[in-house]
Design a protein that fits this description.
By secondary structure, the chain is an all-alpha fold. It folds into two domains: 47 residues, Orthogonal Bundle (Arc Repressor Mutant, subunit A); 138 residues, Tetracycline Repressor, domain 2, CATH 1.10.357. It has ten helices and no strands. Helix 1 packs across helix 4 and helix 4 packs parallel to helix 7. The chain starts with 11 loop residues before the first helix and ends with a helix. Keywords: DNA-binding. GO terms for molecular function: DNA-binding transcription factor activity; transcription cis-regulatory region binding. InterPro entries: Homeodomain-like_sf, HTH-type_TetR-like_transc_reg, HTH_TetR, Tet_transcr_reg_TetR-rel_C_sf, Tscrpt_reg_YcdC_C.
Length: 206
């Protein structure tokens, strides 16, 4: 059967259906994880038949991989934007702010990534050990340079990046807990932004 995976350009309807399937897959994977998700669940959420799903994506693995590939690019863009020529504090706090915004705007993607990592990153190991590690190593050198110049406090640069990831993505991955503890009338992401800005300003003061 000739499917949408062929090299010829997709029609507008094919592109729309492909996006609908990935949106449904994102809902299901972020809720149940890769192992708990089924093609039947994805088809139901997408409002399409299972054969229709398999026309666009040959397997559950293919859908998951497509989502992870897209996610990694989105997740790494703010770190790529860290400018070695900029003001160190402004650059780092800007990165923290963008990571909070990503957690607010893309909570399903954050949980998808967390689920993959908790399973040992079987479908992302090459990307993590390759593209992600290379980028972190590159930016760690930038951070180390600023520390050596006395422009920010001396800290282990890679662990500083880990801390930013943990403190920002928490608000997406543990959204239900955060909202339950804060109670009604609180905006977790607005409060997180203010708190993390203060925290990292004090942490990074030379």
């Amino acid at each position: 059967m000739t499917g949408a995976s062929d090299s010829k350009p997709r029609t507008r309807i094919q592109q729309k259906n492909s996006e609908t399937i990935l949106e449904a897959a994102l809902d299901v994977f972020s809720t149940y994880g890769f192992r708990g998700a089924t093609l039947d669940q994805i088809a139901e959420v997408a409002g399409l038949s299972k054969p229709n799903l398999l026309y666009y994506f040959p397997s559950k693995e293919a859908m998951h991989q497509a989502l992870l590939t897209r996610l990694l690019a989105t997740w790494l863009d703010p770190l790529r934007d860290l400018d070695p020529k900029g003001d160190p504090l402004d650059e780092i706090l800007g990165y923290v702010k963008r990571k909070v915004e990503l957690s607010r705007d893309f909570p399903r993607e954050s949980r998808l990534f967390a689920n993959e990592i908790l399973q040992g990153a079987p479908r992302m190991r090459d990307a993590i050990e390759g593209e992600l590690k290379t980028l972190v190593d590159e930016k760690a050198k930038v951070l180390q340079g600023w520390m050596d110049q006395g422009r920010i406090a001396r800290l282990p640069p890679v662990h500083l990046v880990f801390s930013i990831w943990a403190l920002t993505q928490h608000y997406a991955d543990f959204d239900a807990q955060t909202r339950a503890v804060l109670g009604a009338g609180h905006d977790p992401f607005a409060e997180a932004g203010d708190y993390l800005d203060t925290l990292f300003r004090k942490l990074l003061a030379p």
